Structures
1.
Amino acid sequence: MNYEGAEVLEIGGGNTRVDPSVAAALPKGCRVLFTEGHGLSFWANTGRIDVELVNGTLQSFFLKVISKELGKNMVHGEFESMKAIYTLLPDFAPKPIAWGTYETVKDTHFFLCEFRDMSDEMPDPHKFTSRLAALHQNSKSPNGKFGFHIPTYSGNLPQINEWEASWETYFTKSMRWALKLELDAKGPDPAFDELIPILFDKIIPRLLRPLESDGRVVKPSLVHGDLWYANSGIDVNTSESLIFDACCFYSHNECKANKPSVTIESMKLTDTRSIKTNLASGSQSATDLVPNIWQHTTPMFKYPHPKRITKVA
């Protein structure tokens, strides 16, 4: 865990004190009534803050607290990611409020958003994929390229988000970074020495280059970046699906948006092609561009990020 404690500002245990930086982001004049631990994180301390507004109404917020420079970069990336999603689909994500650094505890950082009470039920697959499709279709890369304006983190591992005009180039850079982290964490592997050249010299060009050849183009679409069942839920009040804990970037719309090994199995969906049709409906996809290539490219799109390969303690 990248959290070293916050002394008298710990969440829960009857504490109602919050750091001045957090207080400044809360509604002006509100009074903190209650804090409690809420949710689980491998990297941070998370909790709920209940406040009373000046007009007497109650409001709740979700707070994530994390330490060190890595933690600062993680909450900044999460804030920018959630802001991008919320701007496009405000009913599909909790509203991000602020991110920043504690005034009273050294090298401690936070992410603050509205609190949405969620159930553990799995979302309706058709509604959920329709919302994902809307996110992909309605998003527009600010410069028409693949990437994101700041680094984002899947867990505690950074994504390579430098802007690239070509999807093949962006994906290749991401894959090289993933393999570098794998080798750094676990040491040399003779199998990698044999397979890596084949991957980059033959497999990736053969599968991805046709998507951007002969006048074809791939639209950079905003994707969540780490979408699995633990980063989604059902709003108790609206019964609508929500997504959170994002590490966004602009990519091929099928990249990391529908992982058959996670999303489909956990949602007990058996028709993979139906899910892919829902996700791609109304937008370009490998299915439309090159017949029968989607079943080869999509499994590969699950692995552009190092979190899929290894975890760094």
Note: The longest helix spans residues 68-88.
2.
Amino acid sequence: MRDIEDAQVKRQAEADDILKKYEEALPIRQFLLTNLVRSSDGEHLRLRIPIKILALSLDKMGDFPFNDPDEVRYDGRTLIVRGTKSHYVADDVLPLIGRLFPMFKLVDIDSGHWVISEKPEAFRQAVVDFLHEAEGRDTW
């Protein structure tokens, strides 16, 4: 993204050409390209959130502020959709997830981290199935 910002590209196709050096999956590149907007002078594309701000916030973006299920817990139904090719929701954290979200349902989808971009139909179906399972129940 820094290379895109530095190049001051005029079209998304130019930005995509730069991203191809780092990511081969088109759905992921398309997702990343949604962060581009036209600059105020209309001459080039810029990131919606400046790269400096993203870089300063990167550590906190992946953080989950609650780690003690004895202090904070959500007892309603919860859907966890996990890409099986991603390391973000590893098997070893499932017991902690279960303590924080005792009524969680896990759906594994054969994809990387950005499930919704890589496998949109499988993601949609997981959400629809989860919502249909809730029909007729008084609790969430």
Note: The CA atoms of residues 123 and 129 lie 10 Å apart.
3.
Amino acid sequence: MAGITNTTTAVKAVFSLNVITAVVGFLLFGFGIVIVTIRVKNGRITSISLKRSSSDTDPLKTTLATHICLVVALFCFSIAYAMQTAIVALQVRSESPVSVTAAFSYYYTDGSSPESSNSNSISILSFAQGFVTILFTFFLTAAVWLHSNNLTTNGTRVNTPGTLSRLWNALILGGILLSGFASWARGMYVRKHTDLTFPNAINGDRVARILYILFRCVVIFSSTSVSIEVLRLFSLLKEKGSRDNTSRPLLARFVYAVVPIIWIRNAFILVNIVLIYQDVAAWSRPASQAVTFLLIIFGQLANLTILVMVLWGAWSMGRTAGKGREDDELISGVERAQVDSSN
């Protein structure tokens, strides 16, 4: 029985990258859980209204909603790459052909092949990975939107998001789930009575392929819309927020680091969509592997960077969220004690 050590260099390289990505994802997931636990323990989990704010420095928004989205996104991200790692290991052990291609991360032979002894497990893991990847995309986009709005509210004293923003982003976020699960469900229908993997189901069925491309286009549109809103919020913060406000550098970091990464990642998604309709089997092996490594490596690094930046920003923002209210309560308690002692 073959093992990872006996497979091609390309497969070993991508397998190692998947392992590292999954491990880093689980570490970030654990860090996110710790942050949420500390915030809840310290009571910094609720927001205060502008009317109840006693000064221009009291944060109106906390990071609880952002952290919840982040924790779920990190869990889905880590599980997805852990499943991808398991799929490659099973594929190699079954001695069925496995190669790196530019159309998808890997190309697996039809699971019904007698050579693929682990075909059923590979198929199940493949569809499970597709499912959690859809959830990851949804929660990551939601976290970026929530975090940028919370920073703007705390920095400008203007409550964001507004009603139109809530409705619009609820629509595009719902579009991610609807289009994603539609393509996944169609793939499950195509898989019926076979051991096809999710990429094979998409590649072999016209409806599934169209729905999957629609999902990827919705992801591009949604993430671009959210990034444009981040730019608009940063402009609002610069206009109405003070220069020494703690939210300003956090959102600036977001604008100059996360937004360009989102746009470049979207460009790579477009390339991946185009390649779905290309006969990559006719490409030379070096060309196919070069494009594939570019897509895989940048895709993983882009998502990891976005996750780290949002987690770091939410953690930095959360260190002061609720602090002003706690100070007010402490001052009120001291004043009451002084009145009681004077009486």
Note: The beta strands are 98-99, 107-108.
4.
Amino acid sequence: MASTAYCLYCFEVLAASLEKRQPLDLKQVEELWEQYNDSPLGTGIVEDEKDVEMTDDEDVGGDGEEEAGEEVGEEDEEPIGRTLRPREMSRLQAPSPASASSSSSPSTSSANSSRTGLSENSKSSSRSSPFSFIRRSATQREEHPLFVTWNTVNSRGHKSLRGCIGTFQAQELSSGLRSYALTSAFDDLRFSPISLSELPSLSNHVTLLMAFTPCKGPLDWTLGTHGIRISFSHQGKRYGSTYLPDVAVEQGWTKEETLVSLMRKAGWSGRSSEWRKVSDMKCVRYEGKGADASYRVWREWRKWVNDGVKGR
């Protein structure tokens, strides 16, 4: 099941890429997040995002990658409360990374070059990380198809898509989340690359996909439970697209309306009443387990981590 720590890791990877520094790895984020939640400061910090107003939907790219985007206004930053030093922080040997409030925004090329450097330096980062005191278990090999979604949230809580790309190929979680956190931030062609100045307005959603089952027909799935992936032929061309499990419910669609919308997302331009006339319609249903985190949650957790480094 997806966890808040996965979303914080996506924020960590994105911020590190924009700031041109090495991020914490997934295992470090998970353990520090657990410590933070055990502290008085961490109590009640995770927001209930069910009340956030949603618009737009998520659609598919091509060849196994899914894309979806929304746009967000800036969120009012709240003051950060009292800090608490993490357990064992006194053993750290290096200063904290730069703050995410840097005033300059890198170009697309610099963001992409930073992403390249991220993978090239992954081995050395494990040796030089200021958080090297954290226990490292055997490499986590849990694998899932996954999607990473970036939204922007304005001061009224209105959430809009800013980028969403995923894959139906099973990914090892650490490398998969790292890769798609950056791909969805920089390479969703419907949007310009996310900049450093946008970080305070972002929220992140991670969805792990599972339980893939061929449908007996295009309507053989359940609203609110299943995502669907379709493919079909029309006028000699093959089309395909997907919606994640929460899209239809958020939009208030029936199953037939969802299917027609999904076909249009794939590029079909026929009349709504003629959707049954396409050839060789194939449909696969699946389930998704998701988690959300806002920039505010990541920022307050990261400040707690940084203050522990400074207080060593």
Note: The helical segments are 4-19, 26-38, 108-120, 122-128, 173-186, 247-251, 255-266, 295-310.
